[in-house]
Amino acid sequence: MFFDRVQALASIPALALSVLIYLGSAVPGAAISLLRDAGMEHGLSQLAMPVLRAAGLNAQRVRVLVVNDDSFNAFVIDSQTIFLHYGLILKTDNAAMLQAVIAHEAAHIANGHIARRMGNYQNARTMAGLGAALAVIAAAAGAGDAAAGIALGTSSSAQRAFLKHTRAEEAAADRSASSYLLRSDIAPQGLIDLHEAFADQELLSVTRRDPYMQSHPLSRDRIRAAKAFVAANGNGAPPNPNADYWYARVRGKLSAFVRAPKWTHRRAGEEPAPDVRLMRQAVAYHREHNRAAARRAINAALSIRPEDAYYYDLKGQIKMESRQWAAAVRAYDKARELAPREPLIWGGYGRALMATGQTRAGLEALEKARAREFRDARLLRDLALAYAKTGQDGMAALTTAERFALEGRLADAGRHARRASALLPTGSPPWRRAEDVLIASQRFEKGKKKR
Fold first, then answer.
1. 3-class SS of residue 7
2. Quick check: 68 and 87 in contact, CB under 8 A?
3. Distance (Å, rounded) from C-alpha 243 to C-alpha 370?
4. pLDDT at 174
5. Are 265 and 281 in contact (CB under 8 A)?
6. What is the DSSP letter of 375?
């Protein structure tokens, strides 16, 4: 598992939205820090798959990523990604509750709320100026509080009109989420539990706020609606050991990395799945620099699940961070054989090969990872280094430019894109990518001068 600070936008063309955010605020478009881990993301995909299918979405294309934030929140800003704060994952009590979150966010995608909100951008400018437009953008990212703060100087009526529209969408998303859960044989009680947890958060943080100014319906109204749905449709669902297993594994690995090792050692014994318990202990021992104990624990987990690519991936990480390069190559090599389409595993394999001096083989592996993963800033950094070591300065400059663009550092991105454009063959696909970044950077600079 690693931290990856990336722009919360899906692609380079979306940088236009980042420019808009910068023009109306004192800082560039906000970047978010992600917690990237192949095993954790696979587990979340297992939990999301039935819900996404019930929503009519492609479960192979819509991804669930984890934000490095301990607050109780989730959001969507494009049609292909659901973002969950790690705090939300750790504060849920069961698989159905987490699946209810995914169902709600999937409903925003399926119901076209994202496109509709972005489409309202020009209307918001006309109605109340740029501040309200930024409120639209912030609310689309799930930041209802930020939306009210950003919209300083806009009329109260304009803010109320937009937030009323948002509350209607949230209520519609709740209704759709309930039906997705029912069609997926997931107990809708999870949605009730979720809203009750949100209600607890309201008691902690909301005391004097005008209820009309909130971007979501009040939790008591959402609880009432969810209970009415359960009363009308029932709450029965067959046991789902697969969902329970992957839920425990996602939360177990996440907590092992973000909480103190002593906490993990105290709580790991409560885990009923022996391989998950051993995995949690392996992470805790690794963080305590106890190499022998970490090795024993991860090997014991692999003895239980010998064909598990994601335990081999964790073993590779442990070996890499222990500077055991050759052993890391072997672990990642096995992981990629078992999960040949997993870009994060290919990225780890490429880094391990680079560490052992196998530069060209490492570059090949990193390029395979890049072909499947376009927003991994760490991968772009490693890929730029590999290109530089193999004398491909134009490609090194291009991937560096794309990394800076992904991180929202458009001025830096422009400098490297200009260099890449001069070094790459004119008209080639890499040259066009460099030009795209350069154009975004130039628009960014022009916007700064107009302020």
1. strand
2. no
3. 30
4. 87
5. yes
6. -
* Residue 436 to residue 37: CA distance in whole angstroms: 29
pTM over cut 0.85: no
Tokens encoding 141: 């990212």
> Residue 414 is inside which H or E element, if any?
helix 410-423
Residue-wise pLDDT tens digits, 162-191: 445 577 788 888 889 999 999 999 988 888
Do the beta carbons of residue 313 and residue 343 sit within 8 Å? no
Q: Which two tokens stand for residue 320?
A: 């890499």
- Set out the domains of the chain in order of their start, with CATH numbers: 37-239 (3.30.2010.10), 242-450 (1.25.40.10)
d(CA 255, CA 268): 10
Q: Is the pLDDT of residue 133 over 50?
A: no
CA pseudo-torsion sign 63, 69, 73, 77: negative
Which CA distances in Å does 420 have to 277, 302, 368, 386, 402?
48, 44, 21, 15, 11
Question: Two tokens at 353?
Answer: 């090969």
- Residue with the bigger pLDDT between 148 and 338: it is 338
pLDDT > 80? residue 112: yes
Give, in order, the Cα–Cα distances in Å from 383 to each of 242, 333, 399, 410: 36, 18, 7, 19
Contact 142/74 with Cβ under 8 angstroms? yes
